[in-house]
Amino acid sequence: MTKRIFIFLTVSFALTGSVFAQVATIAVAANMKDAFAEIAAEFKSTGKPEMRVVYGSSGNFAAQIMNGAPFSLFIAADEQFPLELFKNGKTVDDGSVYAIGKLVIITKTSSGIYLSDSKSDIAKAISKANKVAIAKPEIAPYGRAAVQYLKAEGLWDLAKDKLVYADNIGSATTYVASGAADLGFTAFSLAKSPELLRQTSYVAVDTKMYEPIKQRMVLIKGAPQEAQDLYRFMQGPKAKSILQKYGYSTP
Questions:
Q1: Beta pairing, strands 183-187 & 132-135
Q2: What tens digit of pLDDT does each residue of 62-84 get?
Q3: Is the distance from CB of 2 to CB of 31 less than 8 angstroms?
Q4: Is residue 29 classed as helix, strand or coil in its secondary structure?
């Protein structure tokens, strides 16, 4: 009898471990937080199971996946990191561009800094700011776009000594919202958040001054069915409508 119980428990634990191993964990770029929360809710409403969602910088996620992190789907903020994973044999294929993002400058309303889309006004805003927040350009595509913009507009020398670097675009935005930085660069999708709009203002920067922020997603090899279903859902009309609402362009 004891032997039978032992065999039953061993099989049960093995099956349970297998189930847990198949739970989809989705790595999502921080700029997508608000938009993806709504997309995930729509996806779940179709009868799909709960999935674990982690937000962060695309560069950090790519490094973690290269080192074997158990992510099922990588929804990145650019093309570079997903394509590197594909070249290294970590993904099913080269994935799909699901959105094109936009870069904006943001400031806290109480800072007294005026924002407009003229270069001279932006230069004045940077001059007045004590600190300027951006995401780390080596791991965050929106941070890289911010550096490209500053250099292309001839504002780099004005801003470089004031820059404070955050691990991802969400943290850079929080620096401004909390008052830790007077000015910052963020994603249009985050700047449009109703909660953020109550205390900040923003202005879009010239898209010609930085490389297009094409956001690509890739399925990781061995991804369970629900991750595959979400990958397809992200390319459908409902998800595209949500992305457009948050200021993204869609293919």
A1: parallel
A2: 999 999 999 999 999 999 999 99
A3: no
A4: strand
